[in-house]
Amino acid sequence: MVKSNNINNKQPSIVRGNDAWGYLILLISLLFLGYIIFLLYSWVNFQDEVYLRLDDPKAFDRSQKFSARKLLDNKGILLDGGVVGGELSFQYFPEHNLHGHSVNFSTTVDSDYDWDLGILCNLCEQGSKVEYFPFYRDISGYKKVAESDIHNIYVPDGDGFQYDNSFSSLGVWLDSNVPEGSTLSVLDPGLKLANFLKTNLPKIKNEMVAINPNIRGPFSLLVAADNKFEVKARIRHHKWSALEGTSVHLIIEDTNQNILNRSTLDLARGGVGEINISTNLPAAGLYRVSVQGIGGLETESLEINTNKFVFLPDGGPHGSHRLSGVYFNKAHELFISLVKPTNLTLYSWTSSALGEVDIRSISGNQAEQKEVEENDELDEIFTIKSDRLDEPVNFNLPAGNYIVPVPANVAFSGVEFSISQDYHFKPYKYRSVSGLDAEYIIARFDVEKKSSEGQKVNMEFDQQAINKNWDQEQGYVWFSMFSPKQKKDFSLHQASGGTPNDFLEPAYFSDFTISVE
Asked: In this structure, are 70 and 95 located in the same domain?
C-alpha cells in the first residue's frame, strides 16, 4: 500500500510536466503560424517603387536593388548623358517574390529613334529570350481615348468623337466605337488583330477562275474558300535576273498566319514552271494565299477554285524598291471599293515617270473631270499627272467604287483590290495598317503629352507576364530596352571607324521607374 501511495503521489508532477511541454509546443506553433501569416501578408500586399537615373554614379552597380547594364562590351553606350548603341538593360531585385504581382516600367524619352521594351522570358519553349514590345513611338499627334488593363487606344488629335473611355473586350469596343472601313494599327506582337477585324464572308461559287496577273515579285491575296481548295500558278524566272536559280513558295495560311499548306518550286534563270496546291481546309472561311521568292520572278497566270478573292496591298517591296505594294509588269485595270476617304499610292519603278492616269468612278456620281496635283482631294472622276522619276505619287480618294488603270511597270498600294469587280469582296470590317499611319492605334504602352524633357512612357507587365519571367532562383526580373535602327546605325558607323559623336543623336532618358502592385 505504501508503494501504491508513492506512485499515486508522483502522478501529478508528471501531468504538470506534460502541460508545460504542450504549452511550449503551442507557443512555438503560434509564433511560426504568425510568421507565415506575416510573410503571406507581406507578399500579397507587397508594393514597391524604385528609381534610377543614368547620371547616378551607382546606376551600373549590380549590387543595387535597381541597376542598369551595358550590352555592347561596355563601349558606346553613354554619350553626353544620352544612350547610343541601341541596347540597355536593367535588373530589379525586389524584397519579395513577384508571383501574383504586376510591374510597371516607365521612363521619359527624348529620341529620334523608336524603342522597344522587353522582359526576359525564362519559361519560353525556345529557352530564355527577351520578348520585346513596342514601347516608345513618337505619337505626339495622337491622344488616348480608351484603355483596358493591358491596352490603350489612341486617335489623331483632331478626332472629336466621344468614345467609351474604358473596355474589357477589345472586340466589343471596336464594334461600338469604330466605323466600318477604319484603319487600325496594333503595336503589340502578342495581339492577333485578325481576331477583331470582323470577317465579312460572301457567298462563293466553287469554280475554277483563271487570271493573268503579271505580278512581279511576292504578293498575297485573301480568298473566301470552301473546304476543298485548289490553287495553281505559272511563274517565270526572267533571264535578266541576277540569280542563276531561285525557289518559289506557294503558301496557304489561316487569318492568324498559321501555315496550313506549302509547296516549293525551283527555277533556273530563264525557266518557267507551275506550282500548285490541292488541299482540304479546316472549314469554309477566309484564307491567305501567298507567292514568295526572290529574284526576277513574275506570276504570269493564276488559277483558283473560288470566285471571291482580293489582292492585298502589301506584297513588296520588290528588290531594291522601297514601296510596299503590288508590282505589275503589264498594264491592268484594278477594281477598288472604299467605304471612306483613303490614301493610295502609285509608283513607277523604272526610268520612266508615271505619266497620266485616269481613275474612273463607277458609283454613279458623274463629277466633272479635272486634273489634280499630288495629295489633292479628288472628285469621283479625275486625272493624276506626274513627271517625277522614281518617286511614289500619293493621292486621296473619297468613298466609292473605282477602276484604277495601272500602267506597266507600276506598283499600286493602299487598299485591297481585284482584277475584276466580279471577284471583289470586302474581307474585313476594318483595315489593318502598319506603323503610325492609322486612325486607331492599339498599344500596350501608355504615353503622356511631350514636355521639355521628352515624352513620358510606361508599360505594365501583368501577373501572367511576371510569373513567366520572374527568376525565382536568382531573385530578379530582367528588363531590356532595344532600338533596332539605332543599333544598326551604330554598328555601321563603328565598322567604318567613326566615333558616336560623328553620326548618332543620343537618346535621352531623364529617369527610370519600376513600381510593383
From this structure: yes
What is the rounded distance in angstroms from the CA atom of residue 18 to the CA atom of residue 345?
92
Ranked by mean pLDDT, the top range of 192-201, 215-224, 358-367 is 215-224
- Number of domains comprising the chain: 3
Question: Does residue 192 lie within any of the structural domains?
Answer: no
SS3 of residue 366 by DSSP: coil
Question: End-to-end distance of the chain based on CA atoms, in angstroms?
Answer: 74
Stated length of the chain: 517
In this structure, what C-alpha cell is assigned to residue 312?
Answer: 492585298
DSSP secondary structure letters along 178-231? --TT-EEEEE-TTS-GGGTS-B-PPP-----EEE---EES-EEEEEEE-SEEEE
Q: What is the mean pLDDT of residues 31-55?
A: 63
Q: The domain that contains 71 carries what CATH number? A: 2.60.120
Which cell goes with 461?
Answer: 507587365
Q: Are residues 398 and 453 in the same domain?
A: no
Q: Pick the closest to residue 262 from 277, 273, 282, 246 (CA basis).
A: 277
Which of these three, 404, 421, 438, is where a domain ends?
A: 421
Give me the DSSP letters along 122-173.
SS-TT-SEEEEEEEE---TTEEEEEE-SS-EEEEETT------SB-S-HHHH
Domain that holds residue 406: 333-421
Q: Which three cell numbers stand for residue 113?
A: 529613334
Contact 154, 440 (CB under 8 A): yes
State pLDDT tens for residues 468-502. 777 666 777 888 888 888 888 877 776 666 655 55
